[in-house]
Specification:
Number of domains: 2
Number of helices: 12
Number of strands: 12
Helix content: 25-40%
Strand content: 15-25%
Strand order of the largest sheet: 8-7-6-9-10-11-12
C-alpha cells in the first residue's frame, strides 16, 4: 500500500491541498470523532498523523502502527499523546505553539470579565423579562479593574494575559515550576510567589499550565478553600488540572465567588453539576476558535508533518530525544 498521512478531523481546504502536494492523504472531513478501533484502523499504515486533542495516542495504539514516524497535534497542548511512548518507539511529536497566544489571551479576559461582572446572568435577567426598573442595589457584580491577578503557569499565553491584566491596572503575581528571568518579571510587573500565597491573595486566579501527572487536580478542595470567597477562578489550560466535583461544591457553597471555564475533565462530557450553577460561565473549549487562528494552527501542524517526513526536522518538535530512538 502507498504510504499516506492521516488527518483525523476536519481541517481547512488549503491545509488538505498543501498536504496533497507532498503525500497521499486520508482525511476525515466528515469531522466525526474516531472511535478507538476506527482510529487504529486508519493509523495502522499511516506514516504520519495530523491529530486533534480528541485523539488518544498511547503505547498500545502505537504498537499497531509500525510505519508511523510522526504525530502532529493541532494544538499547543499534547496531553492526549503519550509522548514517552512515542519517544521510545522513535515517533516524533509536534504541537502548534505561538500562533494562538493572543487569541487565547483575549478569550481569557473575556471569561474574567464575564464571570466577575456577571455578564451572562445579566443577559438572562433581561431575556427572562425580569428587567422592570433600574436598581441601585441589584443585580450587582465585582470589579475587575485594580484586582490582583494570580497566574498558575506563566508561559507565553500567561504573559499575554498578564499584559491585558496590566491594562486593567491589575497587580500580577505568578507561580510556576521555573521562575522566569528578572527582565521578564519587570516587563510584566510580575512577582513570583508561592502557590499558597497566590491562592490566598488573588482576586482572579488564571490557570494556564500544562496538564501532567504532577498538575492533575492541582486545584482541589484544599486549594479552593484557600482562595478568597470573593475570587474568580478561570481555567484556560486543560481539564483535569481542576477537580471539577470540588469546584462545583465550592461554587455552590460560596467558597469562591465565580468561575469561567473553557476546559473540563473528560470533556466533552460535562459534569452536569455545572449546569445547576448561576455563578459559572461555561465555554466549550473555544479559546483559540477564531478563523485566522484555527487556520494558522491547522497549517502549522501540516507544516510540521511535511518537514518531519521530508527531512526529519519539524520546527515544533516536542521530543527531540526520539531521534536517538529511531
Amino acid at each position: 500500500m502507498e504510504d499516506y498521512v492521516l488527518v483525523t478531523r476536519r481541517v481547512f481546504r488549503e491545509t488538505i491541498d498543501y498536504l496533497k502536494e507532498n503525500f497521499k492523504v486520508v482525511d476525515n472531513q466528515k469531522d466525526t470523532i474516531l472511535s478507538g478501533e476506527k482510529l487504529r484502523k486508519l493509523m495502522r499504515d499511516a506514516v504520519g498523523v495530523q491529530s486533534s486533542t480528541n485523539d488518544i495516542i498511547d503505547g498500545p495504539l502505537l504498537d499497531k502502527c509500525k510505519k508511523l514516524k510522526v504525530v502532529c497535534n493541532t494544538a499547543v497542548g499534547y496531553d492526549n499523546i503519550d509522548v514517552a511512548a512515542c519517544t521510545k518507539r522513535g515517533v516524533m511529536v509536534t504541537n502548534t505553539p505561538g500562533v494562538l497566544n493572543e487569541t487565547v489571551a483575549d478569550y481569557a479576559m473575556a471569561l474574567v470579565l464575564s464571570a466577575t461582572r456577571k455578564i451572562p446572568q445579566g443577559e438572562r435577567y433581561l431575556r427572562q423579562k425580569k428587567w422592570k426598573k433600574n436598581s441601585l442595589t441589584y443585580p450587582l457584580s465585582r470589579d475587575v479593574s485594580g484586582g490582583t491577578f494570580g497566574f498558575m503557569g506563566f508561559g507565553r499565553i500567561g504573559q499575554a494575559i498578564a499584559k491585558r491584566a496590566l491594562s486593567f491596572d491589575g497587580k500580577v503575581i505568578y507561580h510556576c515550576r521555573n521562575r522566569i528571568p528578572p527582565s521578564q518579571e519587570k516587563k510584566y510587573q510580575a512577582a513570583f510567589v508561592s502557590k499558597t500565597e497566590l491562592l490566598s491573595s488573588s482576586d482572579i486566579v488564571v490557570l494556564i499550565l500544562p496538564h501532567t501527572n504532577e498538575t492533575h487536580h492541582l486545584i482541589g478542595a484544599d486549594e479552593l478553600n484557600i482562595m478568597k470567597r470573593s475570587a474568580t477562578l478561570v481555567n484556560m489550560a486543560r481539564g483535569g488540572i481542576v477537580d471539577d466535583a470540588a469546584l462545583i461544591r465550592a461554587l455552590r457553597e460560596g467558597d469562591i465567588y465565580a468561575a469561567g471555564l473553557d476546559v473540563y475533565e473528560d470533556e466533552p462530557n460535562l459534569n452536569p453539576g455545572f449546569l445547576e450553577l448561576d455563578n459559572v460561565v461555561l465555554s466549550p473549549h473555544l479559546g483559540s476558535a477564531t478563523i485566522n487562528t484555527r487556520q494558522e494552527m491547522a497549517m502549522r501542524a501540516a507544516t510540521n508533518l511535511v518537514a518531519a517526513l521530508s527531512n526529519g526536522d519539524p520546527p515544533d518538535l516536542v521530543n527531540p530525544e526520539c531521534l536517538k530512538s529511531s
